[in-house]
UniProtKB/TrEMBL annotation:
Subcellular compartments: Periplasm
UniProt xrefs under NCBIfam families: flgA_cterm
GO cellular component: periplasmic space
Domain SAF: residue ranges: 192-254
Cleaved signal peptide residues: 1-19
Pfam families on file: ChapFlgA (PF13144)
Principal localisation: periplasm
Keywords tagged on the record: Cell projection, Cilium, Flagellum, Periplasm, Signal
Gene Ontology annotations of biological process type: bacterial-type flagellum assembly
Name of the featured protein: Flagella basal body P-ring formation protein FlgA
Length: 321
């Protein structure tokens, strides 16, 4: 692909991706077929001829050998897959004719970054917001990508100072007999709505839903995944001390035991034909499937029992009641 064609493809796809955040259920859209120049404003129109957005053509200079004297007009075509779930996504095709006035061709640096993200980070993760930090020629640009599902994406530019996870990607463009390599550094900062502790928690303390607030935070730097709202359905407890204002993660909390030391539980023993139940006091914490020591509250004997449910244990083979 020639350098000029690469630029056209970048500009075309970049404009299309930006339109994705503004258009719902769009089946076709295109850039005006008139000849435009770098720095001009191109118009993206919908199927009824309505203007969806205006696109400024131009970006940071391409590093390396970036001066060309080819003044011919080039047509770039772009085809995107139709959205399978009719969510917020752009589909159809766009077409733009581009000429340049001067001898400098500009590169749209965000396209390779977004392509890399779509193929890597977003495909391996769930919904969330990702702050993209693009650095080229010591100039940084910041974009926010919101991913709602596998088929939903929106992009907008934002002011930011975030760094995120640093990567380096090399892209190659070809012009005549010359092959040009240039590098783009970028970072990704993921945002998500997470549970934040409203107070301090001691190790082993129960964490209830009313003891946290849900806030939008940067989660890229967390050492483990943040907990979900569904995790509170069974109960959570702290693994270690948690300070007020800390994000609750899988490394800081764990599921609350089904049976805690000191709990009065239902002790079941006997066969399938006849089962007897009595009360016992747990002498250990445990989860379903664990064998713990319990005290028969009637005979005061210590026996072994397997946890079968919350507050319920079953006498194990060899255990004595």
């Amino acid at each position: 692909m020639s350098a000029v064609a690469f630029v056209l493809f970048c500009i075309s796809l970049s404009s299309t991706l930006e339109a994705m955040s503004r258009v719902q259920f769009l089946e076709h859209a295109s850039v005006t077929h008139e000849t435009v120049y770098l720095g001009d404003i191109a118009r993206i129109t919908g199927p009824q001829g309505d203007t969806l957005m205006k696109l400024p053509l131009g970006a940071a200079p391409l590093p390396g050998r970036s001066h060309y004297r080819d003044t011919s007009s080039i047509i770039a075509d772009l085809f995107l897959p139709k959205d399978l779930h009719d969510s917020i996504i752009f589909s159809g095709s766009s077409r733009v004719r581009l000429s340049h006035r001067a001898d400098t061709i500009y590169a749209q640096e965000i396209l390779p970054v977004l392509t890399e993200i779509l193929q890597d980070s977003l495909t391996r993760s769930g919904s969330g917001e990702y702050e993209v930090v693009v650095e080229e020629n010591h100039v940084r640009s910041y974009f926010l990508i919101s991913k709602g599902s596998e088929y939903s994406l929106s992009i907008r530019q934002i002011p930011s100072t975030g760094q995120g996870e640093r990567r380096r990607v090399t892209f190659t463009s070809v012009s005549g007999e010359y092959t040009e390599d240039f590098s783009v550094q970028f970072g990704i900062v993921r945002w998500d709505t997470v549970a934040v502790a409203d107070r301090d928690f001691s190790p082993g303390e129960t964490i209830t839903p009313d003891a946290v607030t849900w806030q939008r935070k940067k989660v890229s730097s967390l050492s483990s995944s943040p907990v979900l709202q569904s995790d509170f359905s069974r109960g959570l407890e702290s693994r270690s001390r948690i300070s007020s204002g800390s994000v609750l993660t899988e490394g800081r909390v764990r599921a609350a035991p089904h049976v805690r030391r000191g709990d009065v539980v239902e002790l079941v023993y006997g066969g399938q034909a006849l089962q007897l139940t009595m009360r016992a006091r747990a002498r250990q914490n445990g989860y379903v499937g664990d064998i713990i020591q319990v005290e028969n509250m009637q005979s005061q004997k210590i026996i072994s029992a397997r946890i079968t449910d919350t507050g319920r244990v079953e006498l194990t083979q060899g255990g004595r009641s």
